[in-house]
Design goal:
The chain has 13 helices and 37 strands. With 771 residues, the chain is an alpha+beta fold. The strands form ten sheets. It has an eight-stranded mixed β-sheet, with helices on both faces. The protein has a five-stranded mixed β-sheet with strand order 7-8-4-3-11, with no helix packed on it. Strands 6-5-9-10 form a four-stranded antiparallel β-sheet, with no helix packed on it. Helix 6 crosses helix 13 and helix 10 packs across helix 13. InterPro entries: GH29D-like_dom, Peptidase_M14.
Length: 771
């Protein structure tokens, strides 16, 4: 078991491995802080554990074992040389910190073969008119038992013009090298007088929400607050205690009232009764609960943990809501009297060193949405930015607040900001998980989920308190774990717990409410940290067969890639941070399956272009020659060229600002797309390969049976995921009829595919095969 299946197994076992996830040739690599005992457990599960000073290194040969001898064996049993079994998916060149890198993806039709494993070798030239050379072996990637591709990132001194990929079975393909994020237009921050850098440190939910409301008061002509209707469960817990250790005599007690509303005042005492054959009884004096243990004929206590638990629930005059034996114990052990009364506590009173000053409000929270736009009446495309679904991710909220400050404070002075505010309707959820975020700031820094405890007795004792809650980004309806998709857990103490049902949590219900109330929302970005990925659909798959949720049409996929290049170019402009192509695309392809994520629901249910963003990616350090990874809570200050919360906030705010420009351009796009069939209609003396090309990202609907094309006609598809459009092998005379629709809904030639009596101004071409 490797890859996503092993990741899910490890998470189910209670390990926190959500940090620094990345695909490696033989699975998924993650960072975790573990004890020696936990290392032993992981090893026993079949996990390869690397030491703190032992990072992953790419194998010198594909799959870590395809040596020269086995490569020769594979070649000897392969199909004839140069069989067209290899395709170059992409070859991208980029620079960062003065260094050049080549990223290559290639795919072989025989990649699923395992005996022998098919290897791939890459060569590149050193520019136009130079020869191929510099042979390297590429790494093969398999996920959930399915071959994905071969891919590698190589450091090079010179930009190549072409590459050549050769498989161990003889297939050969060449491809041109493209520029990735090179020669980007200047970001908004380069404008004279443009103001930025407003955020001075990490912000608690209270600070974020207070500033959002202040912005709405300061700039009422362009900003307002929308309050979400579903209150959170709150930064609050029932007061608890585990009395009597962890054996069969232990009892777990929970108050009926929240800790801050009286639960913390309760004490529970287990006491001997002098005398023989006395029944179990419970006395309540104010908030003091005294359990008088039953005795036998000799006057010795006989009450078991199960009996005491039942008595507390029924005889504590409503003070105790829940009492039960410890975890999976049956409670057969005789309860031991307590030396003194045991005080119940909600464990929320301690303050972690370095946490912000101020009292954390208890009770349910109402989440404000900061809405910014000159015209907030539905006429403009809406953009929803949702930050901090996961509590421990502290950079996404500061990044989102930074964009809000830039919008309102540059509106009057900067023409491009004014264009954004006049042409978009922006909704900012600065923290979608305020309860969990407060718990992360004040109690447990690694908290990921909200604070709602759905656990049954087996996991409801206070020692489990740091493991309760729902992963909000696994609680949605499309591609859900409840429907068998991978990447969400049914365990209430797992970091990817999906909740008892779809949309069980108020935080996820609020997002659905928002996009249904404001139907002009056409773009969405869920901002996370810290992997350095930008992704979209598909986001989940059923593990058996790796069956993904529906992939976007080729036109939408192309629009996502085009938008990503714009967004990431502006990130790079700040300090040359490059989110590499291997970390861009469908999230289930570049990362892992995340069942029930918000992006999937909003795209497939409402047609919203929905991005997921893991900010805080790796930074290349030329001094060491290594890529330095980030963290959920990097130091706020520090070397601006390396990892810091401040630098990440500034650079990724650049990217969000560019997303606003993407939406503004989309809303003003009235230009019709154009498309062609290549090489086109005509007469050919032998079978010919044809494909469609478009002037911009657009979806093509076509027919080959003579009928007029409609929105129900076949869509032009990708050859394979992360690849360009399919190629049709035409062996007999065929007439193609088609039209294209761009991302903004503009239809080529104003053709109306819904009206059978409309002008037939669709495109048409006949490919005649002369036999």
């Amino acid at each position: 078991m490797t890859g996503a299946a092993m990741l899910e197994k490890v998470v189910e076992a209670g390990f926190d491995v959500g940090h620094g996830l990345q695909r490696v040739p033989d699975g998924i690599e993650a960072e975790a802080v573990v004890t020696a005992e936990q290392v032993a457990r992981l090893t026993a599960m079949g996990v390869r554990v690397l030491g703190a000073d032992e990072g992953f290194e790419w194998s010198h040969v594909a799959d870590g074992g395809l040596n020269t001898a086995s490569a020769r064996t594979a070649q000897a049993t392969a199909p004839p040389a140069n069989t067209a079994t290899v395709r170059v998916v992409r070859a991208d060149w980029f620079t960062t910190k003065g260094q050049g890198f080549l990223y290559v993806e290639a795919r072989t039709t025989e990649g699923q073969q395992t005996t022998p494993i098919v290897g791939m070798q890459l060569e590149n030239d050193s520019g136009r008119t130079t020869e191929f050379g510099f042979a390297r072996t590429m790494s093969r990637f398999v996920d959930s038992g399915q071959y994905m591709f071969h891919r590698n990132l190589f450091k090079l001194d010179t930009r190549p013009h072409k590459i050549r990929v050769t498989s161990s079975t003889g297939g050969v393909a060449t491809g041109l090298v493209s520029d990735w994020l090179e020669n980007a237009p200047p970001p908004l921050t380069s404008a004279r007088g443009y103001k930025s850098d407003f955020i001075d440190g990490y912000k608690t939910p209270q600070q974020l929400f207070a500033r959002a409301e202040e912005i709405a008061r300061q700039y009422p002509d362009i900003a307002e607050i929308v309050y979400l209707p579903h209150q959170t469960n709150g930064y609050q817990r029932k007061a608890q205690a585990t009395i009597g250790g962890t054996g069969q005599s232990a009892v777990v007690v929970s108050s009926a009232a929240w800790g801050h509303e009286g639960g913390n005042d309760i004490t529970v005492e287990f006491a001997n009764q002098p005398g023989a054959n006395l029944p179990l009884a419970v006395e309540v004096t104010g908030k003091a609960v005294r359990v008088l243990l039953a005795t036998d004929a000799a006057g010795a206590p006989t009450s078991t943990a199960a009996e005491v638990s039942a008595a507390l629930q029924t005889q504590s005059q409503g003070l105790i809501d829940r009492a039960h034996p410890y975890r999976t114990n049956t409670g057969t052990g005789v309860v031991v009297p307590t030396a003194t009364p045991v005080a119940l506590t909600d464990f929320l009173d301690q303050k972690r060193v370095g946490a912000p000053e101020g009292e954390v409000p208890r009770g349910p929270a109402t989440i404000p949405v900061l809405r910014i736009g000159k015209h907030r009446d539905g006429r403009n495309p809406g953009v929803l930015i949702q930050a901090q679904d996961h509590a421990r991710e502290w950079v996404p909220p500061t990044t989102t607040l930074e964009t809000a400050e830039r919008l309102v404070q540059n509106f009057k002075s900067d023409p491009e900001t004014k264009r954004i505010v006049r042409n978009t309707d922006i909704f900012l959820i600065l923290s979608n998980n305020p309860d969990g975020a407060n718990y992360s700031f004040y109690n447990f820094a690694s908290q990921r989920r909200n604070m709602t405890n759905h656990c049954p007795d087996a996991n409801a004792d206070p020692a489990r308190r740091n493991s309760w809650g729902v992963d909000l980004n696994r609680n949605y309806r499309v591609g859900s774990g409840h429907d068998g998709y991978a990447g969400a857990s049914t365990s209430c103490v797992s970091d990817t717990f999906q909740g008892p049902e779809k949309l069980s949590e108020p935080e996820s219900k609020n997002v659905i409410w928002l996009v249904e109330k404001y139907s002009n929302i056409k773009f969405m970005m869920s901002v996370h940290s810290n992997g350095g990925q930008l992704f979209w659909q598909p986001g989940a798959y059923i593990a058996d067969g790796r069956i993904t949720t529906p992939r976007p049409p080729l036109g939408d996929e192309a629009f996502y890639w085009q938008s990503a290049a714009r967004i990431l170019s502006q990130v790079k402009a700040h300090r040359e941070t490059v989110v590499t192509p291997q970390n861009v695309g469908g999230s289930s392809d570049v990362l892992y399956s995340s069942a029930g994520n918000v992006r999937e629901d909003l795209y497939h249910t409402y047609g919203i272009y929905s991005f997921g963003w893991e900010v805080g990616g790796s930074i290349y350090n030329p001094a060491t020659g290594n890529w330095q990874g980030g963290s959920f809570q990097p130091p706020w200050a520090g070397d601006p060229a390396l990892v810091s919360g401040h630098a990440e906030t500034m650079e990724y705010a650049n990217g969000i600002m560019e997303m606003f420009r993407v939406a503004a351009d989309w809303g003003n796009d009235k230009k019709k797309p154009t498309s062609t069939l290549v090489p086109g209609g005509g007469t050919y003396v032998r079978p010919v390969d044809v494909r469609f090309e478009t002037s911009e990202p657009a979806t093509i609907y076509y027919t080959t049976d003579g009928s007029r094309p409609t929105l129900e006609s076949p869509r032009y598809q990708a050859t394979e995921f992360r690849e360009p459009g399919q190629v049709f092998r035409v062996t007999e005379t065929t007439t193609f009829k088609w039209f294209s629709v761009d991302a903004a809904g503009n239809i080529e030639r104003n053709y109306d595919p819904t009206k059978s009596d409309s002008r037939d101004n669709y495109r048409s071409a006949t490919v005649t095969i002369k036999k």
